[in-house]
Sequence to fold (496 residues):
Amino acid sequence: MDTFDLIAIAPELILAFIASDLLLTSAFIKEKKADQSPDVFHTPKAASFVYFCSCILLVGLGIAFLFRVDDLPYYAMYGLFQSDPVANLLKAVSCFALLITLIYSKQYLIDRGLFRPDFIVLALFALLGQLVLISGSNLLTLYLGLELMALSTYGLVAMRHSSGMSSEAAIKYFVLGALASGFLLYGMSMLYGVTGSLDLVEIFRTVADPRINHLIMAFGLVFIMAGLAFKLGVAPFHMWVPDVYQGAPTAVTLLIAAAPKLAAFALLFRLLVNTLLPLLADWQPMLMILAVLSLVIGNVTAIAQTNLKRMLAYSAIAQMGFVLLGMLSVFDDHAFSASMFYAVTYVITTLGTFGLLMVLSRKGYDCETLDGLKGLNRKHPWFAFLGLLMMFSLAGIPPTVGFAAKLSVLEALVDANYVSLAVIAVIASLIGAFYYLRVVKVMYFDEPSHEHSVSGSTIAKGVLGVNGLMVLALGIFPGALMAVCLDVMRNTLLGG
Fold:
C-alpha cells in the first residue's frame, strides 16, 4: 500500500480508529459514585465524552469531504476504492446529517436511558459503512460497506430492550435485511460468474461485449434489483419500512431515514449507471415499475395512518419512487443530478421532521401520533411553523425545497419523453398532499388534546430553526445547490 492510498482513505481510517478507540476508552471512564451504574456502557460521564468527541469528529470529516468535492476522480487500494466528486459530496452531507441527528437526539436519548457510548459508536460505524459503500468500486467493497451499515442499524433498532415493539421491529429488520443481502449477493455472484471480475470498471467492459451470455446477466440483474429495492425500501419490497420506523426509538428512526438514503442512492448509481449501463433495456423497465408502485402504494397507504412515524415511513417509500424516476433518463447528467438533488433535500427535510418530533417528546411521552400535534400553534407557534415548512416540503408545495426537487425530477422525465410517468408522479403527489396538509390542519386548527411541552437543549432548538429556514431558503434559491449537484455529477461521469 503506497502513501497515495493512505491519503485517499484517510477519513475512513480516522473514523474507524476513533470510533473503536471511543468504545474502548468509554469503558474506563468512571463516575464519581462507583456504584452509580453497574453497566460499563451506561455511564453518563462516558456517554457525554463520546458524544462530544463524535460531534467534533463529524464536523472535521464533513469539512474534509467538502474540500475534496472539486478533486478529479481517482482510484485507490488497487481499484477497490474510488474517490470522485459525487462520492465526496454525498459523504459530506452524510457526516453533517449524522451530526444533526446526534444533536436532536441527545435529550430524547437521555430521557429514555439510551444515551450510551455504544449507541453513539454504533451510529459512527453505520456512518463508516455508508462512506465505504459510497466509494465502493468493487462488488466486494460495496457489499462490505452495505453490511457494516446494516449490522450497525440492526443493533440500534434493538437497543430499547424493554419495548416489545422495538424487539419485533429489530427481528423483522434483521430477517428481511438478511434476505435482501442474500438477493444482492446472489446477483453479484452471477455477475462474477459471467464476467470473471469483481471490479466495476472491468464488469462494465465485459458486459458491453455482445458475446457474453445475456440470459444469465439478466437473471442476475433481477436479483440485484430485488436486493436494491429492499435496501431502498421501495414497493413491493417495502414491508419492513413501516414496522421499523414505528417500532424503533425516534432517534434510531432518524438514523435510518436520513443518511442511509444517500448511501442507497450511491449504491444505485454505482451498480446501474457505472457498471450495468449496457443492460439498460433490462433494468430500466424494472426501475420504472418499482418507481410507479412506490409512488402509488406509498401515498395511498399513508392516508390511512394516524401514527406519524408510520405515515412518514410510507411517505419515504413514495419519496424514493421520485429518486428512482430521476435515474431513468440515463444519458442525461441533468437527470442524475436532479435525482441526487432530490435525495439530498429529502434528507434535509427528514432531519427537520424527526427533529421536531423529538423536541416535542419528553420523558414518558413520545410525540408520535396526530393527536400529539393538535393545537400546537396555540402554545408554540414557531415549532408549528417549522412543522408546516417540513410538511409543505415533503408534499412539494412552493416555496419550499421539496417543490424545487420534485420539479427538477419531473423536468428530467418530460425531457426524456416519459410524459405519462410525469403525469402519474404529479397525481401521486397530489394524493400525498392530502395527508401532509392534514398534519398542518391538526397543528393550526384543532383544539389541543393535551399540554404541549418542548424538550431538548438550546443548541438542538437553534439547529432545528436553522434546519427549517434552510428548507425555505433552498426552496426560494435552489440554484446554488442544483448547480453543485450538476457539477459534481458531470465531473464524475466525464472523469469515469
About this structure: The mean pLDDT is 85. Residues 164-195 form the longest helix (32 residues). Residues 283 and 444 are 45 Å apart (CA to CA). The chain is about 75% helix and 0% strand.
